[in-house]
């Protein structure tokens, strides 16, 4: 039989932040302070559109999501309320989430579509190639 070598990573003098919550109730590991107002999202340019996908599971998009655009900023706001009850015990969680992103140059704020499917909100903004501004010549004045 070969000797098995166990390789251990050296432990830092400072524990991982998540380790500080070991032994606390389950809600402590959810990082309510850090992640309470954060929406995870990805954005990319696809086929002439700026597409933003946001993870928003467990919400009703018709009443819990608000997507706005103003001065080149796309803002996604959502509210979530969950409750569970089992064997005389109940738990609930709720929170507001908000994220804003700056639209790319050439984004058409009048051509925006949003859809929700399987916990993912997708916002698509049409983007046209911005016209290059004309070259501007500045007259240089000589000192007298």
Automatic annotation (TrEMBL):
InterPro entries xref list: A-crystallin/Hsp20_dom, HSP20-like_chaperone, Small_HSP
Any matching Pfam family: HSP20
Superkingdom of source: Bacteria
PROSITE patterns assigned: SHSP
SHSP domain sequence ranges: 32-143
CDD domains: ACD_sHsps-like (cd06464)
PANTHER family cross-referenced by the UniProt entry: HEAT-SHOCK PROTEIN 20 FAMILY MEMBER
Assigned protein family: Belongs to the small heat shock protein (HSP20) family.
UniProt name for this protein: Alpha-crystallin
Origin organism lineage: Bacteria, Bacillati, Actinomycetota, Actinomycetes, Mycobacteriales
């Amino acid at each position: 039989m070969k000797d098995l070598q166990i390789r251990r990573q050296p432990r830092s003098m400072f524990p991982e932040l998540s380790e500080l919550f070991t032994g606390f109730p389950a809600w402590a590991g959810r990082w309510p302070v850090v992640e309470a107002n954060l929406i995870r999202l990805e954005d990319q340019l696809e086929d002439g559109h700026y597409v933003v996908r946001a993870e928003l599971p467990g919400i009703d998009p018709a009443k819990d999501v608000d997507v706005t655009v103003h001065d080149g900023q796309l803002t996604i706001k959502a509210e979530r309320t969950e409750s569970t009850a089992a064997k005389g015990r109940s738990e609930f969680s709720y929170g507001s989430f908000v994220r804003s992103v700056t639209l790319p140059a050439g984004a058409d704020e009048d051509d925006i579509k949003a859809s929700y499917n399987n916990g993912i909100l997708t916002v698509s903004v049409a983007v046209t190639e911005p016209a290059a501004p004309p070259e501007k010549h500045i007259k240089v004045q000589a000192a007298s």
